[in-house]
Write a structure and sequence with these properties.
This protein is α+β, with helices and mostly antiparallel strands. It has helices at 2-13, 27-49, and strands at residues 54-64, 67-74, 80-87, 92-100, 110-117.
């Protein structure tokens, strides 16, 4: 009789307050969150290797499959930030540029001419490295 009672109790323990078992988040949601976190960490690593001091956390948006736009504020330059383009398959930053950050604005930040750098070719004419 005791084993039957234990099995019945174990069967009820996994159900939530509605009597249904809890549903885990969908695998696509979990994968998207993991992908975003990995991309932000890769952007932070790129910034560290290029002597950038980042403010707090960044944001990442997948602009098309396997290509992300990552933005960070620059700790030592209030109102300024860096925008990175990241190829998730190649696991590398393909472009980096300094941007102006307008607090409370929902419009994209202004791109400062001459402040961007193509991360794969080392920049072009009229472009310098991000300070």
């Amino acid at each position: 009789m005791l084993p039957t009672a234990l099995l019945a109790a174990a069967g009820c323990a996994g159900n939530g307050p509605t009597g249904r078992p809890p549903q885990p988040p969908s695998s696509s949601t979990v994968q998207a969150e993991l992908g975003e976190r990995d991309v932000i960490q890769a952007g932070q690593e790129y910034a560290r290797h290029n002597s950038m001091l980042l403010a707090e956390s960044g944001e990442a948006v997948e602009v098309r499959p396997n290509f992300w736009r990552i933005r960070f504020g620059l700790k030592d330059r209030p109102g300024r930030g860096v925008e990175l383009e990241f190829d998730e398959l190649a696991r590398k930053v393909t472009r980096a540029q300094e941007i102006e950050i307008v607090p409370g604005s929902t419009t994209p930040p202004l791109i400062v001419p001459g402040q961007g750098e193509d991360a794969t070719s080392g920049g072009g004419a009229g472009r310098g490295p991000i300070p």
